[in-house]
Amino acid sequence: MDNSTYGQLTIFHVIAREGSISAAARKLSVTTPSISKSLRLLEAKTGVPLFTRTTRRISLTEAGKNLLLKTEDAIATLNLAMEDIQSLGEVPSGPVRITLSRFAYQLIVKPRLAEFNLAYPDIQLELSINDGAVSLVEEGFDLGVRFGDTVSEGMVVKKIHPSFKMGLYASEAYIRRYGLPEQPGDLSAHRLITYRFTTSNRLSPLVLIEEGLSITPAITPVMICNDIDAVCDAVRAGIGIGRIFEPLHAGMVNSRDLKPILHEYWPMYPAVYIYYTQNSQRVKRVQAVIGFFTCAVKN
């Protein structure tokens, strides 16, 4: 392999990840023609086209997929080796891409953003808020945050928040108008606000715990939201009873305005974990983010 191949392969990986030559150029802060030239030279070396191009999109050929798969680990190892050397003795700096749910953002990241920026002003956080499952490697993320410690093979996980309950809450205005349910079966006669998962497009089932067993009371929602902020707003407005994670409720301004409903039946959610690849934790800026957001965890 000659001296230019490493650079061409690196650019090839960025094109594959970003989905277009122009996006790769923006990512690498170089011109589009230079990206196109690098790709042409690499294709000349391999003797086969690596992408299928149309006026609207670019996609990997079978040869391109094969090259991507066979060089992915090697390129990642070389990039990390360069970063290890470059970061010796340096203040942590550069971009760190994190995929996380809105809940994780609000509960874990948002309250400490200012503190993090003061501690690491040279680290550029890129937060992608997504409630669905995301592949760190395929999507180019350094870190992910999710419920539970079951992740893809090869990932490292660290607890970032202890387990907690999902609560049912109602406003005082709602309670005055509709009263309080005394047991789970009473919920069928009440107005419920429910959550729709964006990625799967399914409604989140209402699960409660009765005598140690999970139960799912039959409900007809009066309102459906795909955003937990909207659920909280609707509950506060007196539209209905809604589910809110207990630690989020505790951190709300005027949290006393929302009253807990059927507290003894609330289900427990698993702890929240930060996860990452074995190699990424070696990068100083990624180490800094992991350490910062895990240092205050309580079991």
UniProtKB/TrEMBL annotation:
Gene3D superfamilies: 3.40.190.290, Winged helix-like DNA-binding domain superfamily/Winged helix DNA-binding domain. InterPro entries: LysR-type_TF_proteobact-type, LysR_HTH_N, LysR_subst-bd, WH-like_DNA-bd_sf, WH_DNA-bd_sf. Keywords: DNA-binding, Transcription, Transcription regulation. Signal peptide: none annotated. Residues 1-61 form the HTH lysR-type domain. Pfam families: HTH_1, LysR_substrate. Belongs to the LysR transcriptional regulatory family. This is LysR family transcriptional regulator. It comes from Kluyvera intermedia (Enterobacter intermedius).
